[in-house]
Specification:
TIM Barrel; eight-stranded parallel sheet; three-stranded antiparallel sheet; 36% helix; globular
Length: 352
């Protein structure tokens, strides 16, 4: 049976509002009957500016984190962003200190149009950010950067996995894999992020599976958002409540990839803008399949999609409501992941 873990991003409101730290998170994961964690090392509201939900790289702190993980017999993975050598060197050393064997990162995308600059990843939701156009040379540059870090990965026996992180199509990432051709470098398949690049998650799964080391298991819908240039955004919901064919995506991963773990990353409450030109990933517009248009989760007069991620900026009352709903959604997502994995195992054992 595949092991199932939980990403800290699933409970981002709990971390950002100081209702949870890395130790209580690990204990919560244990209480949910899970096998491991993915720890997000990215800065955000109220989090450590370098180490995110992990909080610190102090050796004593890391030793305590590792001790608790070992007490619960949990695997650990960490998530960061970017490919800068010195940054990844520190992340690899921290991963080694807590016993993590996989690091998720993603290719930094630099926009060509006004505003420019590397894309975020800190939960920011920027309607002013111009999207769609960036130099594809970033993928060739990524190959150069990754090659520099491979000796470190070998030394520490840690693998690096590139995520399809909203901007990248699966074909672009597969192109990077073919250039690298290293057992220490693979892909991180996110079940939902393909949508932001106008790509069907099932197609992304088929393309990425042979190279995939690790995953983010999540569900999405598309909702109206007049603030955005497309007038729609992708919205996270508890697994099983969205329109992604999670069962088919999981079966593709189980049968065509070498994964041994499934990391639940429920992105709720959260909305993400479409990042590429329509058709870039093979889907021309919203309206069908997982791109079917649904009603907003909340009355836009109370909270807009752009405010879902930071409800504390709207009201304390709303924050309390969404804290409770986020925990409930995490529990639902975990149970749904367990259900699909159980059904898949039964199907295989029966020879169907």
């Amino acid at each position: 049976m595949i092991k199932i873990g939980l990403d800290t991003e699933t409970l981002h409101l709990w971390f950002q509002n100081k209702r949870m730290d890395i130790f209580s998170f690990i204990k919560t994961v244990h209480q949910l009957g899970l096998d491991g964690v993915m720890i997000n090392l990215i800065k955000d509201y109220n989090l450590d500016p370098v180490w995110g939900t992990l909080e610190s790289d102090d050796p004593e702190h890391l030793a305590k984190v590792r001790q608790l993980l070992e007490e619960y017999h949990m695997y650990a993975e960490v998530a960061t962003k970017g490919l800068e050598y010195e940054h990844l060197k520190k992340v690899i050393q921290v991963a080694d200190a807590i016993g993590a064997d996989i690091i998720r990162t993603y290719v930094p995308i630099t926009l060509n149009r006004q505003g420019g600059g590397e894309t975020g990843g800190d939960g920011k939701y920027d309607f002013g950010k111009v999207r769609l156009d960036f130099d594809p040379a970033v993928f060739d540059e990524a190959v150069v950067s990754i090659n520099k870090v491979i000796p470190l990965l070998k030394k520490y026996r840690i693998k690096l996995a590139l995520e399809n992180h909203e901007y990248e199509t699966s074909e672009e990432l597969v192109g990077v894999m073919k250039q690298l051709n290293s057992p220490w470098i693979g892909l991180h398949y996110d079940f939902g992020n393909a949508m932001m690049a106008w790509e069907e998650p099932v197609q992304a799964a088929k393309n990425m599976a042979p190279y995939t080391f690790t995953t983010h298991f999540k569900d999405h819908i598309v909702i109206p958002c007049p603030e955005d240039q497309y007038e729609y955004v992708v919205c996270g919901v508890p697994a099983g409540e969205g329109n992604i064919d999670l069962q088919q995506c999981l079966e593709i991963m189980m049968e065509q990839s070498p994964i041994t773990r499934l990391n639940v990353e429920m992105c709720y409450p959260y909305c993400a803008q479409f990042k590429r030109a329509k058709g870039m990933g093979g889907v021309a517009d919203v309206g069908e399949g997982c791109f079917k248009i649904e009603e907003p989760l909340y009355d836009p007069n109370v909270i807009k999609p752009s405010q879902y991620y930071y409800p504390q900026e709207v009201s304390e009352e709303l924050l309390e409501e969404l804290l409770a709903k986020q925990m409930e959604g995490a529990q639902k997502s975990v149970e749904y992941a367990k259900k699909l994995c159980r059904e898949y195992a039964e199907k295989r054992s029966s020879g169907r």
